[in-house]
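Moderator note: this is an archived Q&A kept for reference. The question asked for a predicted structure of one protein chain; the sequence and the answer are reproduced below.
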Amino acid sequence: MISYPKEVDLKSYKELINKPESFYGLDLNIKFCKKCTYSNQKPTSEVEFKHSNKTKKPTLIFGENNICNACAILEKKNKIDWADRKKKLKELCKKYKSKDGNYDCIVPGSGGKDSFYAAYQLKHEFGMKPLTVTFAPHIYTDWGWKNFQSWIKSGFDNYLFTPNGRANRLLSRLALENLFHPFQAFIMGQYNFPVRIATKLKIPLIFYGDTNAEFGSPDDFSSPVRDSKFFSSEKIDNLVISGISVKDLKEKYALDQQDLNPYLPLSSKDVNDETLNVQYLGYYLKWHPQECYYYAVEKGNFTSAPERNPGTHQKYVGLDDKMDDFHYYTTFIKFGIGRASYDCAQEIRNGEINRDEGIALAKKYDGEFPHRFSKEIFEYWSINKKDFSKAANNFEQPVMDKKYFDLLTDKFRSPHIWMYKSKKWQLRKKIWE
């Protein structure tokens, strides 16, 4: 039974407290990068189907002089011979290029700036015949759907997969309850479903866009290959989604194997270097998000949102899904890093703004509550008896509302990041102080 969330014990969140508890295995000593707006609390890429509420999160590595790994990698990136990398891409495409006019690669994406840039470059600059593959968002924004249609109309075939709507809602609610990570199942679908399509259609080459190294993951630019640990597993009978075992999702929540398959990795025995080659296009082409945006506007009629996204100054990143707003808000609660800090860190590294400007934007927008779609999202997370006859019995209160969400939010605040002072929640350590 998932109980109604209780109020947290505020004693753990006093301003003056000796060694406050740290959740998720995070470093008690909070540090900020001297070059960007990241902190050492920022999570890096992990294998989602092994993620439970006891998992210790892999976080950003800080090197000498408090420089984060993402900024350190930028220095390596700037020394790369990009002409040589482009030559290697041409050789790779030549190896896999279709001789009979059929698809020769897959580009996963939603029609956002990055997936548009990747697909268009591969088709028009390198002569490939990509099939674009989309794992549908929870709830499309109007502008996200418009950009998706513009992507297709600019000259691409697309395989749009929309998972079972009830299963998707339930998995998002469970991930919120157990992990405070409502985007988790969607991320798993983005990673795993394109691989399923590639193997089913016998298309051996997949191109993702920018590499995880761009965001500080411990990858580097020495290899373009995406590690198969993210989309395959030797053991497939002990996997978890939304912090719950596949076995329990079937027995307690009435989900079928076919409901879960789109989110799950393939068996390792079905994936090898000869049958599947998953690459990062950002290894071969110097990735610049803002240039991808301008490119998509010019070539594909891409449009930004009509308003800035909650929690940041940006309005051309993370446009497709109404759940995006809550994804970044929950990340802020768990790790103390808001949406503006994420956007600013990348803009600083790419030379659009300086660090002082980034800090000012983070101070202004980080942690802003995402009101604009909240009513619709709370309805989406509500597990009613009519649609979920068995699953609803597992919730003390199946209905989600703002009060419930706020209580659940406090449950996931790590005491080493948060304090309760002057009758409000505050970060213990701020980049602007």
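Archived answer notes: The longest helix spans residues 184-201.
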